Amino acid sequence: MELSWERITDLLTIIFENSVTQIILGGLIILTLVLVLKRVVRSVLSRSKVMETKESDTVISLINSIINYIGLIGFLFFVLSVFGLNIGSMLAGAGVLGIVIGFGAQSLVQDLLAGVFIVYEKQLQKGDWVIVNSTHEGLVEEIGFRMLKIRAWSGTIISINNGQVQTVENFNKDKMRIIETITTSFYEDPERVTDVLTKACEELNAELHEYLRKDLSQDPIEPFRVIGMASLNDNYRGYSYMIAGLIEDLTFFPTSRAVRGIIAKYLYKYDIKMPEQQVRTRQDNHPSSE
C-alpha cells in the first residue's frame, strides 16, 4: 500500500489535532524550556565573581525551585486550554472561587517571601550545618520556593515550610568556638588538674594548628587555653574546668572530636579521677504483722 504525500499530511494532521498528542508535545516543550532556563541560571551564577560558591549555590537552588513551579503551573494552564477552557475568562470571572484560592495562597506567598528573606539575609546557605527551630538539625540540601530541605545525620530528609522557620543556629559562619567542659573528682588537686589541662592545650595548638582561626599575619586569634574553673560544684559531682579555642567553621565537627580525644588522652595519662555517680538506697523496715 503506497502512501501519498497528501495521505501522510492528513495522518499527521489527525495525530497533532489529538488532545493527548498536544499535551505530550506541550509537556516536552515546557520541560525543555525549564531545563534550558535552569542550565542558563547555573551557568551565569556559578561564574559570577560577586558571590561566593555557597551563596551562588543557594540562589541557584531557590531560582530553580521557582522555575519548576512556573513550569508546572504553565503546563496545567496549557492542558486546560487544550480541552477548550478559556483561562483568561476563568481567571477574570472566578469570583468566590478566586477569593477562596486567594486565602489558600496566603501560605504560599508567605513561604516564598520567607525563602527570599532567608537567602537575602544569609541566615543559612546550601551546605551549612544548622539547627532549625531548636528541633531539626542537619545539612542544608535545598532552599526551595516553598520548602527548606535538611538532611539529618541519619540521612533522613527533613522538609520545613519556609514560613515556619523561626530560629536558625548556623554552625558555618566563618568561625566557631570549641568549648569543652571537664569535670573532675572533688579529691583532685585543682592546681594539678590545671597543669595537666594546660599541657593538653599545648598539644592541641600544635596538632590542630591548621584548623585554628588566624589573623592577617597567620597567627591564631584565639588558641586553645584553659579558661579556668567553671564550677565549684558541677551538679554535686566535682570541680569543672573549661577549655576553649577559635577554629574555622568548616572543620568544627572533626576538630571537636580530635579535641576531646587529646584531652581524654591527657586525663588518662596523668590519672585524673573523674566524678563517680553515687546512688544511695534506703530500705525501710516495716514491722511485720502477726
UniProtKB/TrEMBL annotation:
GO terms for molecular function: mechanosensitive monoatomic ion channel activity. The keyword Cell membrane applies. Residues 108-172 form the Mechanosensitive ion channel MscS domain. It holds the Pfam family MS_channel_2nd. Its main location: membrane. It is found in: Cell membrane. GO terms for cellular component: plasma membrane. Keywords: Cell membrane, Membrane, Transmembrane, Transmembrane helix. Gene3D superfamilies: 1.10.287.1260, 2.30.30.60, 3.30.70.100. The chain crosses the membrane at residues 20-41, 62-85, 91-120. InterPro entries: LSM_dom_sf, MscS_beta-dom_sf, MscS_channel_2nd, MscS_channel_C_sf, MscS_channel_TM-2, YbiO_bact. It is a multi-pass membrane protein. Belongs to the MscS (TC 1.A.23) family. This is Small conductance mechanosensitive channel. It comes from Pelagirhabdus alkalitolerans.
